[in-house]
Amino acid sequence: MELENNIIHAMHELFFRAKDIYGDRVESFWFYESEFCPCCNKKIDLVNAGKELSLLSLNSFMYHDMSVLIIYFLCSRCITDLPVSTGKKQKTLYNSIEQTLKNAYTKYLEPFAS
């Protein structure tokens, strides 16, 4: 329960920071609830950060066309590989993540469109 509360608090922090940056251009946020990484489709896991410390990688992407901040987790491999990737490889990874998130959000909205 404490972990869930921490995640919810962190999501709100990401949203309010996005509001500071984008102002009224960000109207809401949405959490990508998949248990699979939007970059590589591997199951989300913890990042080992020491003997007794494990971390989750909570990230966000501003989907400007829909005025929504999409919040998501990355797996341990992608969160460690993404920052050290350079040039075209890094851009390709980010584009893959963004497209996966856009598709998931659009699919989420489908039932509300009818």
Mean pLDDT reading: 91
Query: What is the number of helical segments per DSSP (H or I, 4+ residues)?
Result: 3
The percent range for strand residues is 15-25%
Count of spatially separate domains: 1
Global morphology? globular
Secondary-structure element pattern, one letter each:
HEEEEEHH
Query: Terminal Cα separation, in Å?
Result: 35 Å
Uncertain spans, ≥5 residues at pLDDT below 50?
none
Tell me the major beta sheet. Answer: 3 strands, mixed
Instruction: Compute the CA-based radius of gyration.
Output: 15 Å
- Report the strand count: 5
Helix content range of the residues, please? 40-55%
Strand order of the largest sheet: 1-5-4
The chain-level structural class is alpha+beta
Gist of the model:
The chain is of the alpha+beta class.
Give a topology summary.
Layout: H1 2-22, E1 28-31, E2 47-48, E3 54-55, E4 57-63, E5 68-74, H2 76-81, H3 87-113
Parallel strand pairs: 1-5
Antiparallel strand pairs: 2-3, 4-5
Kindly describe this structure.
- The chain has 114 residues and is of the alpha+beta class.
- It has one domain.
- Helix content is 47%, strand content 19%.
- The protein contains three helices and five strands.
- The chain has helices spanning 2-22, 76-81, 87-113; strands at 28-31, 47-48, 54-55, 57-63, 68-74.
- The chain has a three-stranded mixed beta sheet with strand order 1-5-4, with helices on both faces. It has a two-stranded antiparallel ribbon with strand order 2-3.
- Strand 4 and strand 5 form a beta hairpin.
- The longest helix is centred in the C-terminal third of the chain and has 27 residues, at 87-113.
- The protein is globular.
- It starts with a helix and ends with a helix.
- The mean pLDDT is 91.
